[in-house]
Amino acid sequence: MIKIQLSDHFTYRKLLQFTFPSIIMMVFTSIYSVVDGFFVSNYVGKTPFASLNLVMPFLMILGAFGFMIGTGGSALTAMTLGMGDDKKANRIFSLLIYLVIGIGIIFSLLGIFFLEPIAKLLGASDDMLPYCIQYGSIILFALVPFMLQNVFQSFLVTAEKPTLGLIITLAAGLTNMILDWLFMAVFSWGIAGAAWATAISQTIGGLVPLIYFAFPNKSKLQLGKTKLDKKTIIRTCTNGSSEFLSNISLSLTSMLYNIRLIQLAGENGVSIYGVLMYVNFIFLAVFIGFSIGTAPIIGYHHGADHHKEMKSLFKKSFIIISTVSVTMFVLAELFAKPLGTIFVGYDKELLEMTVEAFKICSFMFIFCGINIFGSAFFTALNNGLISALISFGRTLVFQVICVLLLPQLFGVNGLWLSVVIAEVMALIVTIICLIKNRKKYHYA
Q: How far is CA 150 from the centre of its chain?
């Protein structure tokens, strides 16, 4: 196989070939919680399934720091490589990895300590609370490798090793699936089995690349000596703030959705939302993976002032994302019932409600791809402000407005429609930002 470098000219084929490992990597990463949900729903019960969905947003908030450092730091590192300063790029890389490990340990301890009061705050009933605590405490035990896994998803692409990232993620994903089956279907460990399966798989996904970069390797990056550089940390966090806000906002809106659903539809509503989120995780992972894969390329050519290549990359990416968006909408409409059956086929009423909700929500796939790519595109250009504006509007501001208003008009269906309307509003913001900054960054 011909090695693809960041400095290459990218045709459609080469762009898809380079980003494909990142897409598959994100899909398998999203499968962790999906597989947990499937086995918990079918082998443990509806209440544990709702409990898992209730506590998951809190766990994702703590892990969001890894996404911020990974996206913001890899864009900065890629731009530095494009400017020809490999030593500085490795210092930045090493500093950020050590920072994530330190922050992860602190977050893990704090998360375990505050888990019970937060679960109560999120609306956990007396029946749901033990399941929330049991699942959450085990996942928090493996928070550091989970955060590292999020970081290395971006840095492995920057190191021109997307295939290695794919192999590691496949290994972790398959481990999760096998252990979920073993721990719940065979050993009957209940929701604790789901948590241990995920924790072990995340440990593989986080520690294997850490070991790889700690020793001499053939990539562009290696862990080594570094020094505290506040400017680099601030710049990384600022640049990656959109991904951080996106994950935080997604978790906060999930909490809001769950609270509203408990009010409008009870435990069934939370279960439906869980199914929708699981399917969305996989579909959206394609857009996120493509964005992660293209970000270092964009960052490199931006740093090297290759304006012609920037225009080519933007045009090709936009066409690919648009094509995939329409395809996903069609697939979601066609397979709404089979996908719902996987999770809640044992309950006819719940399945009918899930299918109805999914057919409404599936319209979001037409719009969300451009929004996700637009935010990641500006992160790659090291413009965290615009990236955060798009992301923050899409995942929090517009969704909160819709969640508060639309159920007053359409009841429970207003909640499912909220996702679609929020994406449409975000698309308007994304297009405006892309048009206004096209001359500044020379991509159109």
A: 8
Q: Which two tokens stand for residue 61?
A: 């908030």
**Taking a C-beta distance cutoff of 8 angstroms, is the pair 52, 269 a contact?**
no
Whether the pTM exceeds 0.70: the reply is: yes
Q: Would you state the structure tokens that stand for residue 49, as one six-digit string? A: 């399934």
Cα 46 to Cα 193, 355, 380, 418: the distances in Å are: 16, 17, 42, 25
Provide the pLDDT for residue 33: 64
Give CA–CA dist 342/350, Å, rounded: 12
* Whole-number Å distance between alpha carbons of 67 and 63: 7
Q: How far is CA 241 from the centre of its chain?
A: 14
The two three-digit tokens of residue 435, written as one number: 């048009």
pLDDT at 131: 93
d(Cα 45, Cα 31) in Å, to the nearest integer?
20
Three-state DSSP state, 220: coil
Contacts of 435 (CB under 8 A, 6+ apart): none
Residue pair 152/165 in contact (Cβ under 8 Å)? The answer is: yes
The answer to whether residues 65 and 244 touch, using CB atoms and an 8 Å cutoff, is yes
In angstroms, rounded to a whole number, what is the distance separating the alpha carbons of residues 42 and 157? 36
pLDDT score, position 32: 65
Q: What is the model's pLDDT at position 28?
A: 76
The interaxial angle of helices 143-158 and 46-82, nearest 10 deg, is 40
* pLDDT < 50 positions in the chain: 1
Q: What does the alpha-carbon distance between residue 434 and residue 428 come to, in Å, rounded to a whole number?
A: 10
Q: Helix, strand, or coil here: 315?
A: helix
